[in-house]
Design a protein that fits this description.
- The structure holds 2 protein chains of 2 kinds.
- Chain A is an alpha+beta fold.
- Helix content of chain A is about 30%, strand content about 25%.
- Chain A is built from 15 helices and 23 strands.
- In chain A, the strands form 4 sheets. In chain A, strands 1, 2, 8, 9, 10, 11, 17 and 18 form an 8-stranded mixed sheet that branches.
- In chain A, strand 10 and strand 11 form a beta hairpin.
- In chain A, helix 2 runs parallel beside helix 5.
- The mean pLDDT of chain A is about 95.
- Chain B is mainly alpha-helical.
- Chain B has a domain of about 45 residues.
- The chains are: A alpha+beta, B mainly alpha.
- At the A-B interface, helix 11 of A face helix 2 of B.
């Protein structure tokens, strides 16, 4: 029984549709996990109502996703949960990689100061989900329906119908749009018969949450290849709040999952690692294998897939949870604009065009990390070990050590919404890249000033008059100007999700207006591409 | 496209052969395998030409596979 956290139980409320047997909504979201809740909250921040269906009545059992990346923290800051994550979570940026009993390599993920958010915050998924539930309820725009299980899904070009079962009976729900956030074993995906294919990894891993009071270990990510306490395999250690530590043991392909879950067996592995004199309490244990796979497309008419229902990666690199949150961040403003008639439906094709390459990047990194961590041939192991042995003295080998390339935000490089640069900028965030934070003295941080709408970031005294966009002025010198490679007159058009849409050395209102038209998916080339 | 130079480039091939073999003399089979891997990685970094490296990998594979099949 977990000692540090008790899962809340959310009450089942019979939905009004039970009286008539059917109802309708503009937006239905399936799956109140971290991705579905984030999508619902993001839509609420854009003023859009949704119904969120979940077959359970609580948050995640066990810590599950624990590493939240800088970009994800920035997204939660926009949604109003950033400070809470910082206050409760464990902030870290240093990673250490060991080979046998030797330190092979140390890395610092955020070497420069002057960012509101750190490289990573570790926090159990259940805390984040609990806060998201609170925020969704406080918004007044999210109708959370616990114990509402989607049994069947039908998709038409202009809408979706769901058959939902509850403890008090079944009903039919028509939705203009459906967000499938129902995880790797997605019911929606299965009912629509969509193939979900990719690479299978045979190695089993044991994951344990362990409470260790007063454990004198810094807040770092530590990764061991072939350590003396777990020979031939790898081990990963992360610190979480509540004196909780996440330990991940590679078990190999032949391990017996039932035997490995035996608490005494898990305890003896942990004792071997920590030493016999360190008392600990085992909080949660799970055995897993994984695959790297994705749907071919993330938009199917009026159904949009987000998170693990759309793409699945190995856990090395914190790309599962963070990738899903970034899906929601990408979709929220687009769906809101379409629902409010500010953008054509084709804008939602850009969700697919932008998030499929992002998923591919995550799958590529996570596959490579897994191949490095679990070598499948003698030669692969020899190369892996050689890299680790060379790492201490040779910088090129350090660059090859792959204990998980940790999640970095995707740049939407070839996005149909971006206006390409018309000159060589030589620096600063380019079209499709996420905004770069910088301190603004007493005014806080740059990212604080970018809220949910499109923003024109203008460096220097003059600002062009362009309708339909908020203007934020910044000085043409200082750290912000340096990071954005700006001089007086430099103007960036930022999307509502804080990625760069376009940038200009001279703020010409006509060109800015054209970039804005393209950003909303209203320009002709886009409509043609989408057709 | 980069091509391997098929003309001999080593000044003293016999000496190099002996040096490579000697480097393995006191090693276990596992260490020996790692030594070769480490050597390839170091040389690849010095070469820093991924096309040329691809040609070398292809040439090495075809030499090994052709000989193994003929035997």
């Amino acid at each position: 029984m977990p000692a540090t956290y008790t899962n809340p139980r959310f009450g089942f409320r019979p939905p009004p549709e039970l009286a008539t047997g059917e109802g309708r909504t503009r937006v239905a979201i399936v799956g109140a996990g971290v991705v579905g809740l984030t999508a619902a909250l993001d839509l609420a921040r854009h003023g859009i109502r949704s119904i969120l269906l979940d077959d359970d009545d609580t948050v995640s059992f066990g810590s599950r996703a624990i590493c939240w990346s800088k970009r994800t923290l920035e997204i939660y800051d926009r949604l109003g949960l950033g400070q809470r994550l910082l206050d409760k979570g464990v902030t870290w940026k240093i990673g250490k990689v060991y080979f046998k009993d030797q330190l092979a390599y140390t890395f610092d993920l955020l070497p420069e100061p002057g960012h509101r958010m750190p490289a990573f915050v570790n926090l159990q998924q259940y805390y984040l989900e609990e806060w998201l539930v609170e925020a969704c309820e406080a918004s007044g725009l999210v109708e959370l329906r616990w114990k509402n299980r989607v049994e069947d899904v039908g998709s038409r070009p202009d809408g979706v119908f769901l058959r939902v079962s509850t403890p008090a009976g079944d009903y039919r729900l028509e939705a203009d749009w459906l967000l499938a956030c129902d995880g790797a074993r997605s019911t929606v995906r299965e009912r629509l018969g969509l193939p979900f294919e990719g690479q299978v990894f045979r190695d089993r891993f044991l994951i344990a949450d362990v409470v260790i009071d007063g454990f004198a270990m810094p807040a770092e990510r530590r990764f061991w290849f072939d350590p003396p306490f777990h020979p031939g395999q790898s081990v990963l250690l992360h610190k979480q709040p509540d004196s909780m530590w996440r330990i991940d043991f590679q078990l190999g392909a032949e391990a017996d999952p039932e035997a490995e879950k035996e608490p005494e067996r898990v305890r003896s592995r942990i004792r071997a690692m920590l030493g016999a004199d360190v008392p600990f309490a085992l909080e949660w244990v799970s055995i897993y294998t994984f695959r790297c796979r994705r749907l071919e497309r993330f938009r199917h008419d009026r159904v949009l897939f987000l998170g693990d229902s759309a793409h699945q990666v190995s856990p090395f690199g914190a790309r599962g949870g963070n990738g899903g949150v970034q899906d929601a961040d990408n979709l929220g403003w687009k769906l809101a604009a379409v629902l409010e008639g500010r953008a054509p439906e084709a804008l939602l094709d850009s969700y697919d065009a932008e998030r499929v390459p992002a998923a591919d990047e995550n799958i590529l990194h996570s596959t490579r990390a897994t191949d490095f961590i679990t070598p499948r041939t003698e030669a692969a192991r020899a190369y892996r070990d050689a890299v680790l042995l060379l790492a201490r003295d040779h910088a090129f080998a350090r660059a090859m050590v792959n204990a998980g390339r940790l999640s970095t935000p995707h740049t939407y490089r070839d996005s149909p919404l971006s206006t390409p640069d018309d000159a060589d900028w030589g620096g600063g965030p380019g079209p499709g890249a996420p905004a770069v934070d910088a301190p603004l003295g007493e005014e806080g941080f740059l990212l604080d000033r970018l809220r949910n709408g499109p923003t024109l970031l203008v460096f220097g005294p003059t600002a062009p008059a362009v309708p339909g966009v908020r203007i934020v002025r910044l000085p043409a010198d200082g750290l912000a100007a340096e990071r954005w490679h700006a001089r007086s007159g430099t103007t960036y058009l930022l999307r509502p999700d804080q990625h760069v849409a376009a940038r200009f050395r001279e703020p010409d209102p006509a060109r800015i207006a054209a970039a804005l038209t393209r950003l909303w998916g209203r320009d002709e080339p886009f409509a043609r591409r989408a057709a | 496209m980069a091509e391997l130079d098929r003309n001999p480039r080593l000044r003293d091939p016999d000496a190099l052969f002996v040096r490579l073999v000697r480097a393995h003399l006191d090693l276990s089979p596992e260490q020996s395998r790692r030594l070769d891997a480490a050597l390839v990685l170091l040389l690849a970094d010095q070469l820093a030409d991924s096309e040329l490296l691809d040609r070398a990998i292809e040439a090495a594979r075809s030499a090994v596979i052709a000989r193994t099949e003929a035997a």
